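Entry: 4-diphosphocytidyl-2-C-methyl-D-erythritol kinase
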Amino acid sequence: MAALPAPPVTAEAKRAAASLVAGCKVNLSLRITGRREDGYHTLESVFWPLPGPCDTLTVTRAAKEGLRFSCSDETLESPGNLVVKAYNAFAAATSFAPGLAVFLDKHIPYGAGLGGGSSNAAALLLYLNALAREEGAPSLDGAALGKLGARLGADVPFFFQNTPCLVRGIGDVLEPLPPDAAHRFAGLHLVLVCPKVHVATAWAFAAWDEKHPAYTLTNRVEKDSSPLVRGIRIQNDLSHVVFERYPELKKTLALLHDFDADAASMSGSGASLFGLYSDADNAGKAARFFLDTGELVFHHIL
């Protein structure tokens, strides 16, 4: 899977609106490996990009310097939105602050563990960097852009690459999966279910800390019951604490298994869940079942 290219900025594009599509990701695995003295958690995770659900950022040039941001969900129109923070961070780093009106058409559920906010930020940063280069303004090289993105959110640099990755550290160390590992998943069906539940990432990690007050790498007890699917162990260390608070998510996970999933798990800190299926018929039955119950469902072939 090729890295996400920077959107081209032509003379016509400067006068017209540019449409930036921001996809999402799932964590095929998420293993907490430690907790640093500063409170940040270290982890190992496999990130896999998905084309849907996706958001669209419509960017229109404006005469006045600065950003005017709006969103299809008005509750997300705040200075804390990662789109706004991305614009401000890029302007601070480069002194390039073009006049932009950005409308975010939001379809990736927030609080779902799909990285929607990070994907939005990455899309705008790539656009700004390409625009700066086109206009001969100061821009950032790949390393500097990656560091800037990481300061906004641990998932942002992943969306610059947009290819299956093994993620370590606090989410800032990315290693593309070897081609043979990624190819082993080719043809596997992924059914993604997005329940109408929002799980705060900060709460999930805090709840995990309460359950593991003396956590170290040496006292971790491994659970070998996690299924191994084509060389990747499908597990999520946060699922236990999330399921305690949101038992309906555990029921959804069980239903994914009922359709003979090879494995099923939670993405990120939740609330989205996914099932992996070798059998296309089983995947189709699972997707139709959840659609019939009114859930937001996406069926992908990896």
